[in-house]
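Re-run with default settings, no changes from the original entry. Doing this only to confirm the output is reproducible before filing.
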Amino acid sequence: MIFDTDPIAVVEQCLQLRERRNGMDRCLDEVQSALNEELRTLRQGEAILGRTVHQAAEQVRLLRSAKYQLDRDLTDKSKASEIDNSTAGLADSVVGDIRSPRSIRLS
């Protein structure tokens, strides 16, 4: 009896059971061809899914990196906005009166 739930293992087990047959019972028929084709299809599907998992993991890595950069940029912009807000209240006259001793006033 076959109790395995892995499709590839089930097909391989069926093929092994067929290969153990003796004499005339051992032949290449439609069932044998269908099992071989199913095994080939399952392995191809497994390979495609493996590549897809790898690509998805790489995409997640890239997205995490982009999120980190965006969070960092947001933090920098928030700090810059706080500085702008705190300096916006300074009067121009206060800033304008601070001169270097060597500066010349133009009329």
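Residues 7-74 form one domain. The mean pLDDT is 87.
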